[in-house]
Amino acid sequence: MQLHLIDVLIILGYLILTIGIGFWISKKASKNIKSYFLGGNEIKWYYLGLSNASGMFDISGTMWMVMLLFVYGLKSVWIPWLWPVFNQIFMMIFLSVWLRRSGVMTGAEWIKFRFGDGKGANLAHIVVVLFAVIVVITYVAYGFIGIGKFASAFLPLELSSVPATNEMYYGLIFTFFTAIYVIKGGMYSVVFTEVLQYVIMTIASIAIGVIAMQQVSPEMLAEFIPTNWDNIFFSWKLDLDWTGIMDSVNDKIKDDGWEMFGIFITMVLLKGVLQSLAGPAPSYDMQRVLSTRSPKEAAKMSGFVNLVLLFPRYMLIAGLTVLALVFYSDELNQMGDQVDFEQILPFAIKNFVPVGLLGILIAGLLAAFMSSFAASVNAAPAYIVNDIYKRYINSNATDKQYINMSYLASAAVVIVGTLFAFMLDSLNNIIDWLVAALYGGYTAANVLKWYWWRFNGFGYFAGMVAGILAAMILPYALPEYSALEAFPINFGFSLTACIAVSFLTEPDDVEVLKNFYLRTRPWGFWKPIHNELLSKYPNLEKNNDFGRDMLNVAVGIIWQVAITAAPIFMIIRQWDSFLISMGVAILCTVILKYNWYDKLEDYPVEVRDSIPE
């Protein structure tokens, strides 16, 4: 693809500015490891929210969701529940507050806060560190593949005559550029560059949405979509037949196994609720929560992510999809059985974005890659340095030594993640592996850690190991089962291991449990620990907010879906549906204002005076 000089200069200017910010701010980040990994808990919640949103605004995910909207229409807004996308609502309503009350630096350090220093706690600590590093390396590989596909389609230099090799070369180049500013500037660099990247991506997203609305009328779109494509609601069956329009899409739906859509979404919802109750995985999302200045700000940050991420992102997704449906369907039909839906995004950008705006859009999508990549690269070294090097190897090192180790750990994560990407050939491979082998094994142990006092470090270790092993074995033992269908079996293995091993071993130190409960104050099965504390705190009140929290979660999920659907309805000019979606979103916002936001508390009253923050 030939870029105009103006577009090239815009892209180069963005890259230079981003790296410059990393080096400019590196002095502030290098004071100590708390500054490097958490920004010294000084960064305001709305900057962290923009940063978190930017980190989730990735190219690979955008390409995947463009494909989903193309194939499944408005019903595609429910499919990201696979991750599940509504885990952000659980975070916003109560889990971010609980997590931030710990005052720790990483998820592995939180394990010590929850389980103590015994042998079981040490085993739990080790498995969390390994899990965190593997998750981050996988995300690095996921981003590497996405940026390679994107850059090779848009940037003018052909580095290799072999397309796959060309993608890998571009992946290496942009991985190197991003690693420079992340390694140098730590969390400060990540946040400040991601705020810039969010602004660029939002401008690009709005521009694409406007172009799509100008180029495609509802009448034009109707010729290229099947009946019910523009209907967000569903019954047990998908009721979406592409026969005669693009037969290969029917094959895609069949291969996905989502024809019984109502059953699929019911299973996704049940799985998603369990995974959301487990709290965030030890990756960039958790690091943003731990970086906030207070528990209340952690909750605000998680809520803000939904507000600032979904509308502009889905303007981009809907705009690209609509342009591709009307103007690229013939080319896709000609591909026959070899149709590549991941080429929808490059086609729409190549053919409909004018000079100048094209440079901004490409810079924005490069920013999307760099954001998600940077957030991941910043997360793993925190575990390697704080939870391995500092805890087991050199607990008396100077701040400079810890920072230098952080540089080295960041570089190692980038290298290993890149090598992992060379062994995979598609985005779906990584998505499936993340959903199954990693998050499938994570759920049971991390649900119980919040809500059951008798759950101990040994049980946590056993549950994590059993869950991950089951998730890796089940595809071979039950090849006819999808990752979603195998989840209940996996969860059952992990849950059994958690409970059995917890009862077969001694409870954790009661003083550790009392400190955790007193400071975090979760709801759940904590009565024995509550009673232990009554002698010192006779007026101690348990958390009675379960009902209110679950009501707010339900309202929040509806709010999230409405914000997701509204920009799609706007792009396809279904104004009645757009106004209904916005009305639902506003009503949910009012409810959450009075039933969630106004009731946020930093710490339980018994520990407020003892918190040094």
UniProtKB/TrEMBL annotation:
Keywords in alphabetical order: Cell membrane, Ion transport, Membrane, Sodium, Sodium transport, Symport, Transmembrane, Transmembrane helix, Transport
Keyword Transcription regulation included in the entry's annotation: no
Principal location: membrane
Organism: Neolewinella antarctica
Family: Belongs to the sodium:solute symporter (SSF) (TC 2.A.21) family.
Keyword Nucleus: no
InterPro entries: Na/Glc_symporter_sf, Na/solute_symporter, Sodium:Solute_Symporter
Subcellular location: Cell membrane
Membrane topology of the entry: Multi-pass membrane protein
Catalytic activity reported: L-proline(in) + Na(+)(in) = L-proline(out) + Na(+)(out)
Protein known as: Na+/proline symporter
Upper taxonomic lineage: Bacteria, Pseudomonadati, Bacteroidota, Saprospiria, Saprospirales
Membrane-traversing stretches: 6-25, 45-72, 78-99, 120-147, 167-183, 195-213, 260-282, 303-328, 355-384, 405-424, 430-451, 458-478, 484-504, 550-572, 578-596
Gene3D superfamilies, A to Z: Sodium/glucose cotransporter
Pfam families assigned to the protein according to its UniProt record, in alphabetical order: SSF (PF00474)
